[in-house]
Amino acid sequence: TRPEVWLQKVCPGCVLRTINGVERRARRPPYRLVKGPWMTDMIEDLIKSNRSCRRFVQKEAVPVDTLTWLVNLARMSASAANLQPLKYILAHEPHKNEKIFSCLKWAAYLKDWPGPPEGEQPSAYIIMVGDLNLAKNFGADMGIAAQSILMGARECGLAGCMIGSINKELLQERFHLPKRLEILLVIALGKPKETAVLEDMQP
Fold it and tell me: Which residue ranges in the chain fall short of pLDDT 70?
């Protein structure tokens, strides 16, 4: 049988349960993970590589088949009460991309940055909407689906960014969406033109 694996925050004097029910005294914070021999770095590396990307190689198109595959990953992901209330609008043509781009606000903390310039804008988008006839709250489903899409994008060499700061009324009008479909997120996608670097924080 596989040994138990525990991940706990530990402080001096706390007890950290590691594997097979053996208790050991922990000396240093903040977290310690005991890996079993069956564990690989594949999923950890994928999660680490899944950083928000805001500059893309715009001329590199994203095929609609790739977008469909990404949405299928979201479709197969968990859904609260299995209601599956999410729907997706795919865009990869330049004229549709422009309709979406002008409805977005990029990097709210960077007040002086209006977003990526022409040539560095996303090559594709997935608009995530919730069907109010099926559910009234989409919080858990929305996050799970978006993570599945973004991790799938990284797996096939793309990068993306979840954007929640949207002119929803204008976007709703431009895509002629009925009122029962609530715009939740826009996921920008494309070949990355920037590289994110993770740095460990000092304790």
Answer: 1-40, 203
**Model pTM?**
0.79
Residue 159 has φ and ψ, to the nearest 5°, of -140, 165
Three-state SS string over 134-154 comes to: CCCCCHHHHHHHHHHHHHHHH
DSSP letters spanning 81-108 = GG---EEEEEE-SHHHHHHHHTTB---T
Q: Which of 194, 190, 193 is nearest to 61 (CA)?
A: 190
**For residue 148, what are its two tokens?**
């599945």
- List Cα–Cα distances, 31 to 2, 11, 133, in angstroms: 21, 9, 43
Cα distance between residue 141 and residue 80, in whole Å: 6
> For residues 200, 47, 125 and 174, what is the CA-based torsion angle, rounded to 10 degrees?
-80
| Distance (Å, whole) CA 93 – CA 181 | 22
**DSSP symbols for 144-202:** HHHHHHHHHHHHTT-EEEEE--B-HHHHHHHTT--TTEEEEEEEEEE-BSS-----PPP
